């Protein structure tokens, strides 16, 4: 139990912050906008602490089940955090565009921010990084379709018919995700994985080790001799020695053995079971929801006098949910595992659109108050440029620093437009 508490110190910190937040909520709200803004920053930090632990245990589960299920667990956990925070903040926000702006911000952050920065850093370190281009094409066309149906077409739907189209959108999103889930876990699962070749240094090490074997053993393994008992024994000896060398090399460099594109992180020192990971993950999500309840009130009060555009709140929600994904994607890129980056960035974008939209539309139908889902012209142009750039850059099965820089520049443009209130 003590070891568990020590491992989950970040989550315990979030729990402590939750207790303090509810104990002094009314006091904080009564001390004005400045105090509320500072407390909001502290609560966001506490939420990030809990989110990091949720993502960590999602990553442990992902490593146990492997890709593509592993990446799916990572993206779904992030989307779950986002939906919970968004649903709670909608109860205390008067902005009808919060859902739209959050989804738009999440897509910009995932594709241009996470993918762009990861491809840039990975490209500077490794040059060209390989991945399965079937996955990028599948993700891109699904994102384009889902955003077009849910965030472009609503601009042309009469206000009197919004309920009919909302119901249609829910059905379409669920059908799309069901089919995608079947593809990702069924006959087309190979779309979302990539078999990385063994690194040269390992082959070199094995070759050097074989050269260090006795001359008789080498001769037995290379010379053409009759299949006598001695030759067979020598051959088996050579094979056994080579296997031992390979096993030793594998144990020394476990990251080189990952062939499924999953981010490789050493967790051997943390003996956790699947039940423990699931329990901590669920508990962490509950803590995040409790913190978000107080944060939504303090953040609304704190931003009320700053003149900040409404999209700032949406960007904060998207950043909180994607925070752990950023670290995972950057580690994968630096480890030359670009398939994991593609799965995380594009998978998170798709899950955000295709899962958040039906939940929010269902809330709108339940309350009878529609959300403004149609993107502004500026947002539509930014999404179009982003998806066109992704279709071009992610079409050849390799990324490089230039492609990463193009997406990261688009992310900087998104931030500038957000500051300008566009």
Key features of this structure:
single chain; 422 residues; mainly alpha; A middle domain of Talin 1; 2 domains; two-stranded antiparallel sheet; 16 helices; 2 strands
Quick summary of this structure?
Helix content is 76%, strand content 1%. With 422 residues, it is mostly helical. It has 2 domains: 2-196 and 258-419, Up-down Bundle (A middle domain of Talin 1), CATH 1.20.1420; 202-252.
Provide a descriptive summary of the structure in words.
With 422 residues, the chain is mainly α. The chain folds into 2 domains: 2-196 and 258-419, NCX, central ion-binding region (A middle domain of Talin 1); 202-252. Helices cover 76% and strands 1% of the residues. It is built from 16 helices and 2 strands. It has helices spanning 2-7, 9-23, 25-29, 32-65, 69-90, 98-126, 133-152, 162-185, 200-211, 215-222, 229-252, 274-303, 311-334, 338-367, 377-393, 401-419; strands spanning 129-130, 398-399. It has a two-stranded antiparallel sheet with strand order 1-2. The longest helix is centred in the N-terminal third of the chain and has 34 residues, at 32-65. The N and C termini lie far apart (50 Å).
């Amino acid at each position: 139990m003590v070891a568990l508490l020590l491992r989950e110190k970040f989550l315990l910190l979030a729990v402590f912050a939750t207790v303090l937040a509810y104990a002094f909520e009314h006091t904080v709200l009564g001390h004005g906008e400045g105090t509320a803004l500072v407390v909001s920053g502290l609560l966001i930090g506490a939420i990030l602490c809990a989110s990091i632990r949720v993502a960590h245990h999602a990553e442990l589960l992902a490593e146990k089940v492997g890709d593509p299920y592993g990446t799916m667990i990572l993206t779904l956990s992030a989307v779950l955090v986002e939906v919970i925070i968004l649903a709670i903040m909608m109860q205390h926000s008067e902005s009808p565009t919060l859902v739209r702006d959050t989804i738009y911000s999440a897509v910009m952050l995932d594709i241009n921010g996470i993918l762009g920065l990861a491809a840039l850093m990975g490209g500077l370190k490794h040059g060209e990084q390989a991945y399965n281009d079937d996955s990028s094409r599948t993700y891109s066309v699904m994102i384009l379709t889902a955003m077009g149906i849910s965030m472009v077409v609503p601009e042309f739907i009469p206000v009197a018919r919004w309920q009919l189209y909302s119901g249609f959108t829910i059905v379409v999103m669920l059908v799309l995700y069901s089919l995608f889930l079947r593809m990702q876990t069924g006959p087309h699962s190979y779309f979302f994985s990539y078999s990385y070749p063994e690194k040269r240094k390992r082959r070199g090490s094995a070759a050097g080790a074989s050269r260090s074997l006795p001359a008789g053993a080498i001769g037995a393994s290379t010379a053409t001799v009759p299949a006598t008992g001695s030759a067979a024994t020598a051959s088996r000896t050579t094979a056994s020695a080579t296997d031992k060398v390979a096993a030793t090399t594998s144990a020394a460099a476990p990251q080189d053995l990952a062939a499924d594109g999953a981010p490789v992180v050493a967790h051997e020192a943390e003996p956790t079971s699947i039940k423990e990971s699931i329990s901590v993950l669920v508990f962490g999500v509950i803590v995040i929801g409790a913190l978000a309840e107080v944060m939504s009130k303090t953040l609304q009060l704190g931003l009320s006098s700053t003149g900040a555009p409404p999209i700032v709140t949406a960007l904060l929600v998207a950043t909180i949910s994607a925070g752990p994904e950023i670290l995972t994607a950057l580690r994968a890129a630096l480890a030359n595992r670009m398939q994991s980056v593609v799965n995380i960035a594009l998978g998170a974008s798709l899950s955000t659109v295709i899962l958040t939209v039906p939940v929010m539309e269902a809330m709108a139908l339940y309350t009878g108050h529609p959300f403004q889902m149609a993107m502004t012209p500026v947002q539509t142009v930014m999404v179009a440029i982003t998806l066109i750039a992704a279709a071009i850059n992610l079409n050849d099965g390799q990324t490089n620093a230039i492609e990463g820089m193009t997406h990261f520049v688009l992310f900087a443009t998104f931030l500038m437009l957000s500051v300008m209130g566009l």
